[in-house]
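Hi everyone, sorry if this is the wrong subforum. Our group has a chain we'd like a structural model of before ordering constructs, and none of us has done structure prediction before. Sequence below.
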Amino acid sequence: MRILTTLLLLALSSTSFALKAGDKAPNFKLPLLTQKGSLSLSEYRGKVVYLDFWASWCGPCRKSLPLLNKMRNSLKGQPFEVIAINLDEEIKDARGFLKQFPVSYPTLHDVTGQSPEKYALQGMPTSYLIDKKGVVRAVHTGFKPSDMKKIQQEVNQLLGKK
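Answer:
Right subforum, don't worry. Here is the predicted structure as tokens:
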């Protein structure tokens, strides 16, 4: 319930606080969802990062996670990574979701709600495209499969590909 309350408060707050293109991406250090250990965003400096906030109850996430996984796998060997932050209160819900929709990219868990607060999420799912220097270059709120073409173009542009 804490995560839902946090998201509701963020959605109702002024959008002037929302993280936007050109802002420095806030760092975080969170535990991995399906294995031991933790990751921080700063570990990926020098790579283009697609940071995706999701939850098991998020309908569009059922479509976005597999498509993001496909994009990530197609860019293997490039300085690119997808990092997903799950916001479910119950870790078992998130793990069950990943059994249905497995991904090969790092998936983290934030039950505290600190990372969505730092990023001032406006809805679910929300993703941030971050350049190699840690600057947000695009924000995507919501998801439709047709969004992948634009997302792929933005990623390719940051990777210097045509």
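For your construct planning: The helical segments are 2-12, 61-74, 91-100, 114-119, 147-159. The chain has one domain: 2-159.
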